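queue> holo job accepted (fe (ii) ion)
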Amino acid sequence: MIDSHCHVLFGVDDGPKTIEESITMLKDAAADGVNKVICTSHCVPGIKFENDYAILKPVYDQVRDVELYLGCELMVTPLSLEWLKENRIASYNQTKWLLIEIPYLSDVQFEIDVEATFKTLISMGYKILIAHPERYKQIQNDYSKMAVWRSIGCHFSVNRTSLLDTAREVDRNLSWKFIEDDYCDVVATDAHRTSVRNITLSDAYAMVETRFGSERAKRLFIDNPQRLIDGLDLL
Ligand SMILES: [Fe+2]
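queue> job finished
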């Protein structure tokens, strides 16, 4: 399996603090059958965690014991487009795929129009994977926005923890509905530490396989994440 959303690089965001913690997370990943990990540390231009490629790359180079790729989780802020134009953002494995996070509570938290930003990014040639749509108030309040964002060309990554029985009901119901409605393109851990959403995918893989069959599970946990690495359109 491939984890395409995880905060495993140490000392750059709210993920692990030390290289030892990063390495423990990666060992846990390997033990769970996760053989490739894309490191997607937060990047919130102009606000916090200002992790551009030049900052992430040297940290990434220190933890490359298993098959790792570099990316980031880019928050849409007023500076994000500028940073992209300046080539400062770590896209997925330096392809045109971006893991995009939007403000949790409101479209206008940073006084930006997220839908207009998605359109601009796509017109710039980027492919958008939206992180954990199940956690955004906009979607929780208005499910039809998923169709709107899909029609713009967005893809969606659901957190593994949102699918588990331990998830908040609203997150869990939405996440399974996304899979049912084919709005879920990828499942990833969004791991932050060994204690906060560790790198584990096998439990969610088994649940998806039971409910939707082995072909769907393979698409969400292996085939599509590999296509992010390769810069290809998703299946
Ligand atoms: Fe994340």
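queue> The CA atoms of residues 112 and 190 lie 24 Å apart.
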